[in-house]
C-alpha cells in the first residue's frame, strides 16, 4: 500500500477498525450558492444520513418532506416514503446529467443523486481509497503558508459514483485532510476546492465535520467569495 495512504488511514482510525464497521450515520446540514444556481434551494433543516462503508449505498431522510427519504446506489436513485412507497426513481441516474452546465436546472432526483454521491465520498474518505479498483499515487506537495501539505491523487473507477475520476486530497503534518480538489462533472466540470475546518471523532474513527467548497481559480486556489457548498456534520456513529 502507498506509504502516505497507510499513514493517512492510521490517522483516521485505522483500516482494521474501519473494516469492523458496516455503516456510518450522521446528521447533515448543508447550504451554499450552488443549490440556488440549480434552482434547488437547500433549507437549513438537519437530515440524517446513513452510508454503507464497503459498498456505495446511502440514504438521506427529510428529503422534500418529513416523511420522505432518498435511497441511492450508483445504478438507481429514488425518493421514497418512509413506508417504502416510491415517489420517484431514476435508473442509470448519472446519464441524466448529459449536457448539463453550471446553471442547468435540476429536478429533485438530480439533487438527490448529487447529495448522495457527494456525501458517500466524504464519509468514506480516506478508506474508500483502499477499495478494489481505486488507484492512488502521491502527487506534488502543496505549500499553504508555512505548511507543506502532502497530496494523494486518487483515481476512482467508473463503477463508483463520485464527482470525477481523478481527485486530489491534501493532508497536513498530522495526516489530517485539509483540502479536497475535484471537478463537478455533473455540472459542466467546473473546478472546486473544498476546505476542511474542523474534525470530529466517533467510535474510534476521525473525520472532518465542517466543510466549505469553493470554485477553484486558475492559480489552483479557492475563490473564497464564491462559496458553493457548506456542510456541517454532527452526531456521527459507526456501527
Please, could you describe this protein's structure?
The chain has 239 residues and is α+β, with helices and mostly antiparallel strands. It has one domain: Lipoprotein localisation LolA/LolB/LppX (outer membrane lipoprotein receptor (LolB), chain A, Clam), CATH 2.50.20. The protein contains 4 helices and 13 strands. It has helices spanning 3-11, 15-19, 33-37, 108-124, and strands spanning 23-31, 47-52, 58-61, 68-73, 76-81, 86-91, 135-144, 147-155, 166-171, 177-184, 190-202, 205-216, 222-238. Strands 6-5-4-3-2-1-13-12-11-10-9-8-7 form a 13-stranded antiparallel β-sheet. The longest helix has 17 residues, at 108-124.
Which descriptors apply to this entry?
239 residues; alpha+beta; outer membrane lipoprotein receptor (LolB), chain A; 13-stranded antiparallel sheet; 4 helices; 15% helix; globular
